[in-house]
Amino acid sequence: MSGEAGRGQGRVTIVEPPAPVLLEGFADAVRRGLGGERKSLPPRFFYDARGSELFERICDLPEYYVTRTETAILRAHGAEIVSPPPETLVELGSGSAEKTRLLLDPMLRDGREATYVPVDLSRSALVAAAEALATAFPGLSVRGHVADYAGAARVVRDERAGGRTTVLLLGSNVGNFDPAEARAFFRGLAAELRADDRLVVGFDMEKDLRVLEPAYDDAAGVTADFNRNVLARVNAELAGEFRLDRFRHVAFYDRAAGRIEMHLESDRDQEVPIAALGMRARLRKGERIHTENSYKFTRERIERLAADSGLRLDRTWTDGRGWFSEVRFARG
């Protein structure tokens, strides 16, 4: 369904599936992920209202270099990244959309108008960002979608206007995909791109472990709270009985796989009822629930991903230390 969530100078519309559909997706993931021998929960379910709030706090932590490094790139090169300006800007995993302002500003100069299409699983984050941007940019119309990445290609297809479209995947969101998933995801997007459309992706690059690991295990424990929040969500939405203090946050870099892994480790043998699913999650002491992968990239890996996905590299922007790359792709 869709509805008008608010109104700034431009119109704001939020398109969302019925609440039971969203809950079914979460319930199915919990049932599969906690019912088997190797336990896991998908990282997309971090982002309820509380999870989105915690992630915004993570972005401001001194250890978390990703946001400030990418912001500096967008501030320096935003006008080039969206040149020539698109008529439609689709952002996947939009969150607060604070960095997006650095692209919208050059897009909308000289009285130009455009449509911004943010896509995010957190309705609260989506509505807040949409209303703020519509107020800040008089020439902007916003059509937000409460959805995950599975519907990205459909959103691009349905929301494109007659002119140029740019699709954004900022932050290190691409790192949450396993390599096979990334290829399939980008192939789907490439199939929807026209000759003058562009895909802009933020890639977190390989770097020293002394920089990487603290970014996912900060001294203040905010990332640990963010990780455990997925269990709080099971409690709130599925009548679970998880004791969050019985799970230790674990984050480390797997050099062979080229990724940060995040886990929740049980500090004891325990059985946790999840009443809405009619199940009990059984965990041994030391057993882990795998909650996130965050792959890191090299130039060669990015080029291989593009070639395997039917895309070609158009331009790349990076910071002086080579910690992060903003890459613009075109249809191959």
What brief labels describe this structure?
332 residues, globular, single chain, alpha/beta, Rossmann fold, four-stranded mixed sheet, disordered N terminus
How would you characterize the overall build of this protein?
The chain has ten helices and 15 strands. With about 325 residues, it is α/β, with parallel strands linked by helices. The chain has a single domain, classed as Rossmann fold (3-Layer(aba) Sandwich), CATH 3.40.50.150. Strand 1 and strand 2 form a beta hairpin. Helix 2 runs antiparallel to helix 9 and helix 3 packs parallel to helix 4. It starts with a strand and ends with a strand.
The coarse silhouette is globular
By DSSP, the count of extended strands is 15
Taking Cα atoms only, what radius of gyration do you get, to the nearest Å?
A: 20 Å
Span from first to last CA? 35 Å
Order of helices and strands: EEHEHHEHEHEHEHEHHEEEEEHEE
- Which structural class matches the secondary elements? alpha/beta
Strand order of the largest sheet: 1-2-6-5-4-7-8-15-14
Unreliable residue stretches = 1-9
CATH topology: Rossmann fold
Mean pLDDT: 93
- Domain module tally: 1
